[in-house]
Amino acid sequence: MSELKNAVVLLSGGLDSTTTLAIAQRKDFEPYAISFRYGQRHEHEIDAARSIAEKMNVRRHVVCAIDLRQFGGSALTDDLDVPKSSSVEQIGEGIPITYVPARNTIFLSFALAFAETLEASDIFIGVNALDYSGYPDCRPEYIRAFQDMANLGTKAGVESNAPITIHAPLIDMTKAQIIKKGVSLGVDYSMTHSCYDPAEDGRPCGKCDSCLLRKKGFKEAGLSDPLFETAT
Fold it and tell me: How many domains does the chain have?
């Protein structure tokens, strides 16, 4: 059996990033997970990421602290209400107020630094450009641009024979396809956390964009979401 290649996986504790972690492992990478305490509204996703990393036998899991509340500008990092809707069809057009300015650029930069210390040329991120909330830093052209920058602006990119690759295996998949893929890989979605505005005990609100898109995905996949009593 060939030796596993090191890879950095961005792990938020959510459905998409957990599926991405499982995909990286199936592709025979040794994942090193990185999560962020960035001033978001709650700690539940960090707790989920820790539990997932432990259960999935991640070699090392780093939680980085960045205080994006100093800038605000998002319902996730400022004193702004998280938008709620009764259905996916009611989700507004354009870039929503839950967009955190430059978040994926910041996160990927940290992941890139981590990868260099591991002599890893592969970074996995669970962005998706189909069933998502319209964030500009989830698009294929953004991922390609960041990969180009990574290979121009790092020692590893300039000197290594293995160029840095940003893997976004979910980018062209629907939420239902992502869920089916995860189930086939044995992902335990009961451990994941997706809600932008959960109750104090972590129960999902069921009405924010993230909850609605998650519920839509499980329904279209013909499966029951373990975070809700019944599939809706």
Answer: 1
